[in-house]
Structure formats: C-alpha cells, structure tokens
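Dear Dr. H.,

I hope your travels went smoothly. While you were away I took the liberty of generating a structure for the chain from your last submission, since the lab meeting agenda had it listed for discussion. I wanted you to have the full record in hand beforehand rather than looking at slides cold. The sequence, exactly as received, is reproduced here:
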Amino acid sequence: MKGESREALQVVAVVLLASAAAGGHDAHELSETVVLADRYAQPRSESGAASTLIEGQTLRDRQYHSLRDALNEAPGVFSTSTAGQRGQTGSLFVRGLTTNRVQVRVDGVRITDASTVPGNFLSAAGTATTNRIEVVRGNQGALYGGESVAGVIGIFTPRGGGRHSMLTRIEGGSFDTLRGDAEARGMLGPVSYYVSGSHEQTANDPFPGGRQDFERAAAAASFDIAVNRDWEVGVTLRSSDGRLDTFDPVRIEPGGLGPNPFGGPFAFDVDWDFGTIFVDGVVTPDWHANLVIGFYREDFDSAFQSDETQRWSLEWENHYEWNHRHTTVAGVSAEETDFNRLAGTAVNRTETLAAVYVHHLWRPAEHLNLSAGVRGEEYDSFGSVETHRLAAVYEFEDSRTRLRAAYGTGFRSPNLVELFGTTSGGDFVGNPALRPEDSRGWEIGVAQPFGHSHEIEVTAFANAIDDAIITPFLPAAPFIGMPFNAPGTQRTRGVEWEARGATMDGLLEYRLSHTFLDRRLQGVPRHVAQGNVQAHPTHDSMVGAGVSYVGRRDYGGQDLDGYFVSRLYGEYHINENLTVHARVENLLDEDYEHARFNFDAPRPGAGFGAFGGVTMRW
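The corresponding predicted structure, in token form, is as follows:
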C-alpha cells in the first residue's frame, strides 16, 4: 500500500503543476491540421482517430534533442530505453503494447516492419531535422497495414522556401555533452531547399563500473520545384551514423549462475540512410494525387547481433472529393525488403509486399463525421491479411463537446527470423507455419473545449490480440527455442487523458497528459503522466518547467519503483540574430532505474544535468 500511495501522490503532483496554469483570459486559438489520422489533411477535431501533433517549434522551445523524449508529449505513449540512456536501443510502449506493434513512417513511407522494429531507429534519432511529429493511436491496420496495432508515428522533414536564411545552434553541458547543428533554407530560382547537419557526443551518466559514451552525426535535406500552380516534384533525404561504446561490469549472479555473459566492453553501431522522390498535384479540381518512391537502409552492428536492412517502397495515394459530404482516400503500396542477420540467429531473405486500401469519409450532417476503411495486403512470406476500421465523431453545437468512437482491426506479421531463422549452435529454430498476430481494438473519447484556448480530452480504449507470437526456450541444455502462436487472448485496457491550452493572451501555455492501464502486457508501467508549463514573462524571454512520472513496472521480471523527474528550461533573445538558452534535467537528482534484467547490470537513469548554448541566425 505504501508504494501505491506514493505512486498516486506523484501522479497528483503532475496534475497540479498544469492545473495551476488553467484559467485566465482566453486568447490562444487551438487549431491543428493533421494528415496521418485519415491520410487526408483535415482539422484534428474532425477525425475519429486519437492523435497528437507535436510541432517543430514545440521541439525547439522545450529543448527536446531526442525523439524518444519528444514522443512522451503524446498521451498513451511511453517512450524510453530499457537498455539505458542516449544511444541505447529504444523502447516504445503505446496503450500498453510493445515496440514491435508500432509503425514508424518518415515523409509518407514506413521505415519499420516486423523484422526492422523501431528500437534501432529510436536509439539515436534526434529532433534537429524534424518539422513536425504526428502520433496516431489505436488500430490503424486499415490505413497502414502491419505493425500498426498500437498506432503510427509520422515524422516529417522540414521544407524550404522564402528568403534565404541560416541558423546555427551550439550546446554543451553535463556528462561531457556537446551538440551542434546548422541549417539553411530558402529559394534558388524555382527550387525550394532545406539543408541541415548535426553532431552530438555525450558520455551519458555512466552506471557504477560502466561506460555509455555515445556519438552521432546526422544530415537532412529537401528540394522541391513547383512545376506549375497544381503540381510539385521533389526529394527528401536523411542520414544518421551513431555509435555507443559501453562497458558492462562482470557480475556473479545469485544462485550459482556464474558470470554475467554480457559483461565487458562492446559497441553498438546504428547507421541509416533514407530518401524519397515525390510527385504531388491536382489531376482534376476534385482529384488530388500523391506518388512517393522511398528507400531506407539500416545497419545495426554489435558484439552479439548484426542486421542489415534495405527497403524500396512505393506509395500511390489519391483523394477524391465527390462533394462537400463525401471524400474517398484510396491507394496502393508496394515494398521489397532485403533482410540479412549476419550474427546471432542467422537469416537472409527478401520479402515483397503489395497492398491496396480504400478509406471513405462521410459528413451526413454538419456536425457529424463518419469514416470506414478496408485494406488488403499480400506477403510472399506468409500470405494475405485484410483489416478494417470504422470511426465517428459528433460535435454538439452549443457546448462544442465532441464525442468520438472507433473500432479497428490490425496485425503483427511474423518476422523473418521467427519464420526462417536458425543458429549454428542449434538453439533456435524458425517456424514457417507461423500466422500473423490478429488484433481487435476499440476506443471511445470525449473532448470538451473551454473558451477558445483550453481543452480536455479523455479516451477509454481496449485491445485484444489472438495468435500472439512467443518464443519459449527449454529450461535446460540445449536451451532450444521455437516461436509459435500462443493460445488464448492477450488484452490491454485503459484510459488516457490530456488537458492543454493557453492563458493571458498566450503568454502562458500548458499541456498535461496521463495514461492509466487497467490491463497491460508484461513490464509496461500502469501509470505514466507528464506535465509542461511554458511562460513568456517578456517579449524576449521564455521559461518553462516539465515533470513526468513513470509508475511501477517489471521489465525483465524485476520489480522497479516508480519515479518522478522534473526539468527546467528557458531562452532569452539578445537580438534578432542571437539567442541564448539553458536547461536543467532531473532537477531533483532523482535516483531511478530504466530496467533490471537477470544476467545484466541495472540500468540507471541519468542524474542531475545542466546544459546551455546559443543560437545564431542570419
């Protein structure tokens, strides 16, 4: 009871931080346009999907440098690393579901699948080259196919245009941290351009007897040409090269299990390159078409495992507005993926995917929006899958209360290792007869605006997974394991809510979210909460404070206490060309652990850290 009481009190503390900001004069209109929720640009309030938009300006104001940290702005999401700090493999838990059930897309094409899960990408992904992030929660199989059971994360590269401008940021601070990035954008004749590069290095905050030195270089660019008033062509490019040098102390496990087999020095290298060629335009006044050809390459290398992925993809998407009440979104997708695991559980396969989808939006009345969609996919590795989705949102005219409901199906594909993998020692055998996991999920939400600047939204959700893929190993030598579809149903269920808004003519902004999981998969925290308050005391200054709470969890079977972390940040504009900024992470120097697995050293979080820097524009 003591632990539960402490957890409840800490959640309340997060609530009070943002609640203190509520009230006051309404003046900051809440207006957001999202694309990912229905593959169609529309106000977020008109979509039946639960979604969150995180603008690039928010990332810069709150000084988020890690994509993992930024994703925690969305309710229902807990983004972290159960392996440690910056550079370690990422973990993404959405509505109680795990990383391999979330799909990540960049500039309109997906970069993750069952074999290339988001963990490697999230280990080092930063925010310096990101224009906006969209997070859509719930089963999205009817629009996005496999591995979108928990939701879809969309990341978008900035675009050029306007007068030529340049920007440079430099930051340093605790844990021998040094970061720098530069960007240029503008117009060169008919070409709009954006070019950027960044570099960072940090020793993190090493655990006792360990080391976590991380270094990363990244670049991004976009070029587009307006062929005429209706058509645009262009390319986007992104690249990242990260390396983590770590040292785990060798420990003797209790019970006579011997030395930690993962002890000693080793390194993780994660390199990836990404690019698209796109054509976007108006075929007729009612028909808008978009064609994207994408390429993604990811190499992951460590002492225990080495993966190489290369994927070509094509997305052809069409929006047809029949009239002001009916819009149809339809398209085709095709992918060819080469996956090669060189170490660990070996597999070398090429997989192809073809898909077609139709999604219809209907507005039968002024304040009622309905949508329905279906998608069929064909995989050469295991066969075909069909998914569906229904959604509705209704707004009461007088109170502006919005009611939202959705039901969808989804699936997680068996990955190529689970299907065809082998190991030289004979301790793992793939199972070509595996079926994809089958998921069904629903959500019901209500949103209530207050004035023009405040809104509270609450969503109850549940998900059921049949044919869950698990891989048990024999308890004694030769420790052989084989994946299979487990009997029964795995369920998650919970409530997420968010309050956000602004007061005093927009001088004070706040955002608060909390997720409670009544049922969850093993290890996922029952409570996650985050609050942020941001103020502009003068025209040239900004200060902010953030708090987050992560409840009790049991990663690796080891029970971990909840923890409460706070941060402060701010900036001051000396003039139009020079800005100084500073922030403090883990203000109260909270002692906490990300995870504690058997045969491995505990993974503590970073302690108190202070950072500062400058931004120069010209």
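Two observations you may find useful: Residues 2-19 form the longest helix (18 residues). The CA atoms of residues 233 and 279 lie 4 Å apart.

With kind regards,
E. W.
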